[in-house]
Each structure stands twice: as structure tokens, then as C-alpha cells.
Amino acid sequence: MEKGEDPGSLIKVIHLLVLSGAWGMQVWVTFISGFLLFRSLPRHTFGLVQSKVFPVYFHVSLGCAFINLCILAPQRAWIHLTLWEVSQLSLLLLSLTLATINARWLEARTTAVMRALQSIEKERGLGTEVPGNFQGPDPYRQLRDKDPKYSALRRKFYHYHGLSSLCNLGCLLSNGLCLVGLALGLRSL
Predict the structure, then answer these.
(1) In this predicted structure, what is the pLDDT of residue 4?
(2) Which residue, 26, 37, 41, 159, is most buried by CB atoms nearer than 10 A?
């Protein structure tokens, strides 16, 4: 498109719906559903639910980032991009990259380690309790202290989980900043 040419109302609406939908989904999954499920479900049931939800969530995030990048990238000749447009494209590329890392690499590894942990826990009769409902000493801490394999798997799980959480927060922040930019560019409400 030439400099200043309007991309059309439909493209603008699609861009806004995909971006805001992705951001809303990310807020819900990151800050609401995970905490509610963690506090309400038995530990292994929570893990099973998350292992089903996260692949879909990460792939939808990836798809939304890809769609938004495809909508925005061809709108202007690259030489005519403003600082904000370059920033927005960079944020969407970051979101796409982080969502891809989560969807294609981290999720599978995190789930595999979680299943290995759950297997050991099941052998010890653990995993059916809702987190936070312990009476007496923490049986998971005792298991960590006694079983070096379990302890190593747990560290590996938290390593992958931590990286995945950082990628997810990066996507959330990137999309949020893009939405802020769009909101600041509104001429009226």
C-alpha cells in the first residue's frame, strides 16, 4: 500500500478483534483460570487439565500473533514506517516468536516432565489432594528430600515452567502494548 492509504474497515476490525481476543485470552489463562483451577482441583487433575488446555492456548496465541503480523506488515512500505509502526511490528514479531517457543518447544517438554513427576507421585499415593490442604509435613517435600530422581525432575519441570511463564508474560505484554498504541491512536470513542 502507498503511504497513508487506508487499509479498509474490515482489515482494521479483524486486526482489533484478533489482537484484543488474544490479549483477553492471555489475561484469562494467565491470571484467572490457572489460579482458580490450581486451588480447586486435585493436583494431578489440574496437571491433566493444563496439559490439554496449554497446547491449544499456545497455538491460538501463535495463530493470533501470525494473523496480526500478516495484517500489519504489508500496510506500508517499510521505508515509510513511523517509530510506532516499527515498534508495533517488533512487538508482534516478539509475540509470535515467544508463542512459537511455547507452542512448539516448551509445552511438550514441560508436559513430559510433569507426567514423569506424576508417575513417581502416584507410586507414593500422592496427587489426589487439592494443593494447600496438607495436615502435617508436606509429603512432596519429603519425597524431594528422599528421592534424587524426583528432585531433579522437579527442578527440570520448574525450569521449563518458568521459561514458559516468561514467554507467556512476554506475549501478554507485547499484545497489551499494541492495544495501548491502538487506543492512543483513536480519534474519538
Answers:
(1) 53
(2) 26
